[in-house]
Write a structure and sequence with these properties.
The complex is a heterotrimer of chains A (about 400), B (about 500) and C (about 425). With about 400 residues, chain A is an all-alpha fold. Chain A folds into 2 domains: about 90 residues; about 280 residues, ABC transporter involved in vitamin B12 uptake, BtuC (Orthogonal Bundle), CATH 1.10.3470. Chain A is built from 18 helices and 2 strands. Chain A has a two-stranded antiparallel ribbon with strand order 1-2. In chain B, strands 6-9-10-3-11-12 form a 6-stranded mixed sheet, with helices on both faces. Chain B has a 6-stranded mixed sheet with strand order 18-21-22-15-23-24, sandwiched between helices. In chain B, strands 2-1-4-5 form a 4-stranded antiparallel sheet, covered by helices on one side. Chain B has 17 helices and 24 strands. Chain B is globular and about 70 Å long. In chain B, helix 14 packs parallel to helix 15. Chain C has a domain of about 250 residues: Orthogonal Bundle (ABC transporter involved in vitamin B12 uptake, BtuC). The longest helix of chain C is centred in the N-terminal third of the chain and has 42 residues. The radius of gyration of chain C is 24 Å and the shape is globular. The chains are: A mainly alpha (about 400), B alpha/beta (about 500), C mainly alpha (about 425). Chains in contact: A-B, A-C, B-C. At the A-C interface, helix 9, helix 13, helix 15, helix 17 and helix 18 of A face helix 1, helix 7, helix 13 and helix 15 of C.
Chain lengths: ~400, ~500, ~425
């Protein structure tokens, strides 16, 4: 089979990647065939397409593009599995679970906090500081966001309070990691503990057993009236929360900042070779401090979206590992904004699917909650090619 | 020669570190358009002094005057503003970025004040490169250009920032003799344009060739500043070390016998899939020291990795005393009679947090008498350590002392002791004297010759041509993964230098 | 490229004639530092953490932190420990009794009951602490203690509630061994991933945690495969049968008396020490932990050590899960899975205890006291709200981890102080 793939791959000019992308698309189409609206009840066409995808992927991988080849293989396998499961379940259930527009809208909602946190993580890691504490900073943002919105009676003040809280937590992490050269992972873990403890403590102290009030002013949705009648796009984009739009804008914006501005060049130099940056006069400490605090603020913004834009309440430890999923998205996306955004969408999709599955099977849905974490595990296990982090990430920089 | 004006003066510079005085009341001055060499052995304080000049260290006492005005050089930015540029021994370049990005970093041209103007950066780099005759491709990534070119980028970095005082820290350490000659021409052309150069080195012949004046440091103190006219290698060596130094190790001629290590058509691929060793074959015999010379990065590291089992070779074989060890793991190689003194004693040779005794046991801890069925006997480790500390005169601690608390020379003694005590048939020594002072270097060289005299084979891989010439009975040169030539120890540096760059005749290596 | 350039001083080219006096005092000073600061730093860290915690209490509730800490102290039963008198203790397997400084016979004593619970909590934390500590010794951060604990607990509760009528010793042994292996397997996955593809164990273990938690929730949820056979609407497992419960050492079994698990924990401490200091496995693990490059160049199989260290680490955690189930919990619920923190506290225990056996013991005792003393059952709500107090514990724990991560501060302060005294 692979010998078949090689001549195919060889004939397509310039770009193993293009072949790989074709494989990925074919794999996804294989899944789509069995799902609404086509809902083909035989898994054979899907099987054929999936095999093509796997073949293309294998061919590409063997010729050096392991990463994308792996993606194509994964798409083929995944596509067929999904198609098979779909053909085995009842039409009614299928149609109630797989409502594409609702799924996509939910995907955007679930992905947004991840995007904020992952972008934050990108700044921190690109400057050379590992930020395991994204989870804790997100949680701080979630709690202080709703606290601020409640006590100050305004969502944007709440957002500001959240961002400040995240920045302060990040400042602590920065101080210990940069100034005191503490182990960055231990320091980040400490922030996570502290965040859980602090937010839990204050939550019970201030709100007691009733929980956060239900009438807190939330971050508003952006109403795109002109999309009201449009069939597919309308339900997805017509009523998205402001934060989601901000996230969508942030992705290209951070790309520009990181790769097209002097500050981005300096941040990256601190992450690749801090001594070199130091010798041309860049203040490595300052840049790293700035990057880490930025990461805290962004993660906290994502957390605030969770509490006052999405779920509209706060519960102890509500981030439930999202900060770590964001970290995985960062690695998956090779520390680049578009890559990590794609990864966040993938993880968001799995959460969206998990949310709709109770319609399908009560107990299986609990199991399905584990899917984002399984995906993350696979991603980080580097089964799909190894990513290359900034060269000096994780090592404290000491001036003499 | 007319008296040129003094552009830089350092007075009474003192810098202390825990346990040592790196610079002790040193005075140094630099005249316009001159090349002033700073000479001294490893640890004499040359780099410290210049790091102070570049704002990386702060002196405990003393002052610095540039163009007659006192300056406070609190950081590299301050030094750059004052017109000081530094070309470091270990390049301060970011491998994944381009030449232009590296050069303009921290002084980037912008469009609209916010965005990075890369095309302008590339244009400016091209312009300086043309002006000073230092050819580079602004768009190339640093990890894809040669070391010589990287050094040019380092120099351009300083020139881009309009440095008038250039400090070159051991610049020829990574160059072939030919590239060094090119560098000297660049230096001369720079001085003709009024730049003043501080040339740090420990290589006597180079210093005599390029410098106008020479300042000798020893153990943190200024010994003498003299003119290069009339100075001699022996005289400088005596100033550097404080006593007469044997510049070559005394050794009796070799009588090589049986082949001990036979490498045949070895091919090794690195982590990125690039073939770094392309069909290398050679033999090391009993009682012979085979030296492998070459510029760093021509496959020596991968060759050693493959010979010691740290990396799987793609093709070819390695035999020790007739036994094929090619497929074995690292421990298997050790058991076959190979000894390996790795090139970085602190990262690869020793576990610094372990005691001397534990480090000495690292090859043998899994078998009796150190352990039985997995149960460790610490007392045996201590006994062995006590014995070897005595034999090899390791100073600075006892068997339980943490290896990290020893000086570099003593650490290297521990590594040597560990390898030699196992009585290997072949000893592979990679950069065995890097970073060591003269006393330690003498010790290591003596031991290596002793091993040879006792009938073992020694493979010496070193980037220091002098060391290779001084110790080897036969010399091979590696260039781009192949053996580019074989030479006797009487060969000239010229000849070997040519082979190191790939030119010249190729001889069949035995 | 090594960006931490060392000055051309100690460790570099040391001129041989520098003078033995200077060399000696550097080495000497380091040795002193290693010995005394070995105990001083953790103590200082703890004091600092409690101090900051006390500030939080003061600022947020206006209550006196000292009375709060005292209430926690009593809630943990330490008042019993400090009431030394003339009592007697019965010898095992006989009717005789000997003099014993503490009163183990009064089963009504609240302080005694509290202290039993502290020791129960300590048992668990010793084991989860050892799990994290062992991995640290090999240079890895095992945050997966929680998941490994639960994989052990799940198997223990399953085996413990099945096979009714089996010989108790065999039953317990079976449950414990399988649980330990389950923990080892889970951690081993992370170790294997690190050994083969170099996946960072922090993320893989965290992901495995969540996977286990959700899988467990699924297993015990209403309608799930391991859900209670008799009560169909609660998300609990079956109860462990009488024959598989651990014998009680001290106290009333109905009031959660102290079980023999404590001995297992102490045994684990000894095993830990022996493994690291008297076996070739320990040598390899430590070498890889300190310097994987040098270990590799020396002939040690680094990948194998990563895997083994994680597997052993997981064994300790799985063991903890089994002991808790068979010793006092006797059943598992989905709520337990989502609320437990023992794996994470184990991290603080290991860090504070500097990854040594003795350190882990005292550290576990400290945190065990904190957890027990702040629990709803034990803390006097008049003095401090228990829900708040448990979060206070988390805070203190976080502070400990933070300060330990930067123990440079403490060491620096100590060195300053010493220089002031000696110079």
């Amino acid at each position: 089979m692979t010998s078949l793939a090689l001549p195919i791959a060889a004939r397509i000019p310039s770009g193993l990647r293009r072949v790989a992308w074709a494989g990925i698309v074919i794999g996804l189409v294989a899944a789509w065939l069995a799902l609404p609206p086509l809902t083909i009840r035989s898994f054979v066409p899907s099987l054929v397409l999936a095999l093509i995808a796997v073949t293309l992927g294998a061919g590409v991988a063997m010729r050096g593009e392991r990463r994308f080849g792996g993606f194509a293989i994964a798409a083929g396998v995944f596509g067929f599995t999904l198609a098979y499961l779909a053909t085995q379940s009842s039409l009614g259930k299928l149609e109630s679970v797989v409502v594409w527009s609702a799924l996509f809208a939910a995907t955007l909602r679930y992905a947004t906090p991840l995007v904020f946190a992952a972008l934050g993580g990108m700044f921190s890691e690109r400057s050379g500081v590992v930020n395991i504490g994204l989870e804790g900073m997100m949680l701080m943002g979630a709690f202080f966001g709703i606290l601020g919105a409640d006590k100050l009676d305004s969502w944007w003040l709440g957002l500001i309070v959240a961002i400040v809280a995240g920045g302060v937590a990040a400042l602590v992490h920065a101080f210990f990691s940069i100034h005191l050269s503490a182990d960055q992972i231990v320091s980040g873990t400490a922030i996570n503990f502290l965040a859980v403890g602090l937010t839990g403590y204050l939550f019970i102290d201030i709100y007691g057993t009733e929980g956060t009030p239900t009438d807190v002013q939330g971050i508003p949705n952006v109403n795109l009236g002109f999309l009201d009648g449009v069939s597919f796009i309308g339900p997805i984009f017509g009523q998205l929360n402001l934060m989601i739009w901000i996230a969508i804008v942030l992705v290209p914006l951070t790309w520009v900042v990181m790769f097209k501005t002097p500050i981005g060049l300096r941040i990256r130099s601190c992450g690749e070779h801090p001594r070199a940056a130091d010798t041309v006069g860049i203040n490595v400490y300052l840049v790293r401090y700035g990057a880490v605090v930025t990461s805290g603020m962004l993660a906290a913004a994502g957390g605030a979206y969770l509490s006052i834009g999405f779920i509209n309440s706060f519960n102890e430890n509500m981030t439930a590992g999202r900060g770590f999923i964001a970290l995985a998205a960062l690695i998956f996306g090779n520390w680049r904004p578009y890559g990590l955004a794609a990864a966040c969408l993938l993880f968001g999709f799995s959460s969206a699917l998990a949310q709709r599955l109770p319609e399908y099977s009560q107990s299986a849905s609990v199991l399905f909650q584990a899917l984002p974490y399984v995906l993350t595990l696979i991603a980080v296990a580097g089964v799909i090619g190894r990513s290359i982090p900034p060269a000096a990430v994780g090592r404290p920089y000491r001036k003499q | 020669m007319a008296e040129r004006s003094v552009v830089l003066e350092m007075r009474g510079i003192t810098k202390r570190f825990p346990g040592i005085v790196a610079n002790d009341d040193i005075g140094f001055d630099l005249r316009e358009g001159e090349v002033h060499a700073l000479l001294g052995e490893n640890g004499a304080g040359k780099s410290t002094l210049m790091n102070i000049l570049y704002g990386l260290y702060h002196p405990d006492e003393g002052e610095i005057l540039i163009e007659g005005r006192p300056v406070r050089l609190g950081s590299p930015s301050a030094a750059i503003d004052a017109g000081v540029g530094m070309v470091h021994q270990h390049f301060m370049l970011i491998p994944v970025m381009t030449v232009a990005e590296n050069i303009v970093l921290a002084q980037e041209p912008r469009t609209g004040g916010v965005l990075l103007d890369i095309s302008e950066a590339e244009r400016r780099v091209q312009e300086i490169s043309d002006r000073y005759g230092l050819a580079v491709d602004p768009r190339a990534r640093i990890d894809q250009i040669t070391v010589g070119q990287q050094q040019r980028v380092e120099i351009l970095k300083a020139l881009y920032r309009e440095a008038d005082i250039l400090v070159l820290d051991e610049p020829t350490a990574v160059l072939t003799p030919q590239e060094a000659k090119e560098l000297f021409e660049v230096v001369r052309s720079l001085t003709e344009r009024g730049k003043s150069i501080v040339f740090i080195s420990h290589k006597l012949n180079e210093v005599l060739e390029i410098a106008d004046r020479i300042t000798v440091l020893r153990r943190g103190k200024l010994i003498e500043t003299l003119s290069a006219d009339g100075a001699s290698e022996e005289g400088l060596a005596r100033l550097m070390v404080g006593r007469d130094v044997l510049l070559r190790v005394a050794k009796t001629p070799a009588h090589p016998a049986e082949p001990l290590l036979v490498v045949e058509d070895l091919r090794v691929v690195d982590d990125r899939g690039i073939e770094k060793v392309r069909g290398v074959s050679f033999t090391v015999r009993e009682g012979e020291i085979l030296g492998i010379a070459g510029i760093d990065g021509n496959g020596q590291t991968e060759l050693i990795d493959a010979m010691t089992g740290l990396r799987q070779s793609a093709m070819g074989s390695v035999r020790v005393s007739g036994v094929d060890v090619t497929a074995r793991d690292v421990q298997g190689h050790f058991e076959a009679g190979l000894g390996h003194v790795p090139e970085d004693r602190q990262r690869r040779g020793l576990v610094l947090e372990f005691s001397i005794a534990e480090n000495l046991a690292i090859h043998d801890f899994r078998s009796p008498p150190d352990s039985r069925f997995g149960w460790l006997y610490p007392r045996r480790l201590l006994e062995r350590a006590a014995r070897l500390i005595r034999e090899f005169d390791v100073r600075g601690g006892g068997p339980q002392t943490r290896a990290g608390g020893l000086s570099g020379g003593n650490q290297q003694k521990v590594v040597l002791a560990r390898e030699i005590d196992r009585d290997p048939r072949v000893l592979i020594a990679a950069q065995p004297t890097r970073g060591l002072d003269v006393g330690a270097i003498e010790f290591v060289h003596r031991r290596i010759v002793e091993e040879r005299d006792e009938g073992r084979g020694v493979l010496l891989v070193s980037l220091e041509l002098e060391e290779i010439l001084s110790l080897s009975d036969r010399i091979l040169v590696m260039y781009e993964g192949e053996i580019a030539g074989e030479f006797p120890p009487s060969a000239s540096e010229e000849e070997i230098g040519i082979a190191m760059t790939g030119g010249g005749r190729r001889t069949e290596a035995a | 490229m090594n960006e931490i350039a060392k000055p051309s001083a100690p460790g570099g080219g040391d001129p041989s004639g520098l003078g033995p006096e200077v060399r000696q005092s550097f080495v000497e000073r380091y040795a002193i530092a290693q010995r005394t600061e070995g105990i001083l730093a953790p103590v200082l860290t703890t004091v600092l953490a409690f101090f900051v915690g006390g500030l939080v209490v003061l600022v947020t509730t206006g209550k006196n932190p000292l009375t709060t800490y005292r209430a926690i102290f009593e809630g943990a039963g330490w008042s019993w420990f400090f009431e030394i008198g003339n009592h007697r203790i019965g010898l095992p397997w006989s009717d005789a009794s000997v003099w014993f400084p503490w009163n183990v016979n009064d089963v009504e004593s609240l302080a005694a009951v509290n202290f039993q619970q502290t020791l129960i909590a300590t048992t668990t934390l010793i084991l989860t602490g050892l799990a994290v500590a062992f991995a640290f010794r090999c240079g890895m951060f095992n945050i997966g203690g929680q998941g490994q604990y639960f994989s052990g607990a799940i198997f223990a509760v399953w085996i413990g509630s099945s096979f009714e009528g089996m010989n108790p010793l065999l039953h317990i042994l079976l449950a414990v061994v399988v649980a330990a292996l389950a923990g080892a397997a889970l951690a081993g996955i992370a170790g294997l991933l690190k050994a083969t593809v170099g996946a960072h164990e922090v993320i893989t273990t965290i992901m495995l945690n969540w996977i286990v938690i959700w899988t467990g929730s699924f297993l015990f949820s209403v309608g799930g495969p391991l859900q209670n056979d008799t009560q169909e609407s609660v998300p609990f497992s079956n109860d462990v049968v009488e024959g598989a419960k651990l014998p009680i050492l001290w106290g009333d079994p109905l009031l959660q008396g102290l079980h023999i698990g404590l001995f297992v924990a102490v045994g684990a401490l000894v095993t830990y020490w022996v493994l690291l200091n008297r076996t070739t496995l320990g040598y390899g693990v430590k070498a890889v932990g300190f310097n994987p490059d040098a270990a590799r160049y020396g002939g040690i199989n680094v990948a194998r050590n990563y895997f083994l260290a994680m597997a052993i680490s997981g064994t300790f955690a799985g063991l903890a899960g089994a002991i808790d189930i068979l010793g006092w919990q006797f059943r598992l619920s989905t709520g337990d899975m989502l609320n437990s923190q023992v794996g994470f506290i184990g991290i603080a225990v290991a860090l504070l205890g500097r990854n040594t056996a003795v350190g882990v013991f005292f550290s576990a005792l400290l945190f065990g006291s904190l957890v027990t003393g702040t629990s709803t059952r034990n803390l006097d709500p008049e003095i401090f709200q228990p829900e708040l107090a448990s979060n206070l514990t988390l805070l203190i724990q976080g502070l400990v981890v933070l300060f330990v991560g930067a123990d440079i501060v403490i060491l620096w302060l100590l060195r300053r102080a010493r220089r002031g005294v000696l110079a």
